[in-house]
Amino acid sequence: MGRGMTKRERCQRYSKLQRERERERDMREEREIEREREEKRAREREREARDLSQLLSRSLSRALFFFGLLF
Fold this sequence. Notes:
Layout: H1 7-70
């Protein structure tokens, strides 16, 4: 594969391989960033759902309390 190649051809091949490695690394980094963003969004959704559940629970408790006072 490397035999019979001129110095220029070897340099071009090396540069091409270097660019491919850099592109693959960049893609891996981008996937990692996107995965972290997804995890953050999921945690935020869970927190919002928990907060909403607590709010509904408190509202229902208050409504039942006041309803009990009426009757």
